[in-house]
# Entry
Amino acid sequence: MIGVALKLAFRELQRNLMRSILTMLGIIIGVAAVIVLVTLGSGATQQVTQQIASLGSNLLMITGGKRMGPGQSASAPAFQLADAEAIIREVPEIQGVAPQASASSTAIVADQNWGSTVTGSTADFFTVNNRQIAEGRVFTASEARAGAAVCVIGETVREKLFGRQSPLEARIRLQKLSCEVIGLLAAKGQSSMGTDQDDLVVVPLRTFQRRIAGNNDVGMIQVSAGDGADTETVRLALQRLLRARRHISAGEDDNFNVMDMKEIANMLSGTTRMMTGLLSAVAAVSLLVGGIGIMNIMLVSVTERTREIGIRLAIGALEREIMLQFLVEAVVLSSTGGLIGIVLALAASKLLAALLSVPWILHLPVMAEAFAFSAAVGIIFGYVPARKAARMDPIEALRHE
Amino acid sequence: MSAAKPLLELRAVRKTYGSGEAAMHALRGVSLQIEQGDFVAVMGPSGSGKSTCMNILGCMDQPTAGQYLFEDVDVGALTRDQRTLLRRHYLGFIFQGFNLLNRTSALENVELPLIYRGVGAGERRAAAKRALETVGLTGWEHHMPNELSGGQQQRVAIARAIVTQPLLLLADEPTGNLDSQRSREVMDLLTEFNRKDGITVVMVTHEADMAAYAKRIVHFRDGLIETDRATGNGS
# Structure
């Protein structure tokens, strides 16, 4: 009986091909949207998590300024190199401390120039940020102390200024500073916030302060906690130390921030998850609307085929057999829509993942769920029309014009 | 009337539509016995109750009062599904308007009642082909109803009605939409099934010359049987 009903359903679908496709559209869009969103969402989440892990989940960042609510901060005195030295001395369980000061600057080599960011820091910058050297070396302690005119550049800067040539031993001009390239960083790609992590020039902090900034300020201090250290303990120790060093009396707010990357990681992946959830809810609504579309068309179809139903009932079709026929038809309609939606979603998510440079993750359970859901939509929204068909009075139905 | 048990029996059957002042009495106490192998023509003006009577005989409607016995089974006591099964296994229907499924080939139309009987695909096809052959439509199996003439469509409908070899064939003005030549062909087929296969036929008709094919003519008037006489066609 199911076999016959399936055959009939597919025939009925073919007969009204245009109508069937339009009816399925809601389900197609709904299913495709759910799968695309979940695929891209989990790709983005995975990417964020991986990037944060590559930054080092034991990384803490200290920035100046008072937190005054979202997006606002009051100015506060900058840090000094001495602050970083005090951290190394006094805070236990610390692996590296990288005081930093940055400015945007145009880097010039011969007739090429490129606007990039110049960061002054110590050799710890590379270990704290998990940056590998592709060619050359990082600056030595004596170069750092002396404020030598040397720099390490990122892959993007190399590409813009040197093309295919090796940048080592070449000289780059940054404002009034002319420095020798001693190292090239291994490429790291885009960050989860969409910034190019390879577009940078790193010079010794002292060099930056003297020759570029013209002051002794340190804008940010990155601290990496030792393996197995509790970042929260480290954060509190940093806070305590800096409050003392900056003479903040009890009861007064901090005029600096200590951010734990773990916190940021959780916040970012939480945001992505929430966005995915919200968008999926919107997609679920479109599935619901698709279901209503199916119910509507099935009701029209039942009315149109009143005479056929009458003939079947007169000839000996039981109520449940008529019911089954129309239910199967609704389910075939919705699950065909579901299948088309899945195929579309695979193509669309692959394309979008490439465009947004997010990893593409095949999510079989989500596809199975979406398919099951579309079939369920057929059963739920096909029920009322099918019951209407099954309950018809054969005499009335046969009289129907 | 012989001592043989009748196939069908109506006992003081009443059918009332609506209630109170607006009540419409379609049947006012009809009693009728039809023997196995009979061929009954039911005549009467419109509104005389003959269609209501056919609906009750076809187990599609229930009497308001009285009893309808089909082979001693009280149809009035059956559920809707049980009456459907009775139709499925023992009854065949022919309608004035043919009532074939659109966009469905002649062969598939004839197969339809066998599908509900659960007959396998191969056997179903063979039986449907044989039925189409008996009504003279070999070669037309794969035509759609709209590609067939009225006479051909009615013959497909007859094939559909007899493919299950029913006990009772109910025909509601089977020649109402046909010219006299096609009407005679249809009547010849009905007579043949009645004579050769012993299928009991009950047929509603307006036309006296169609009624003349029957063995017995029952006249309805105002919800009652007015006359009930043999035509002399019976042996």
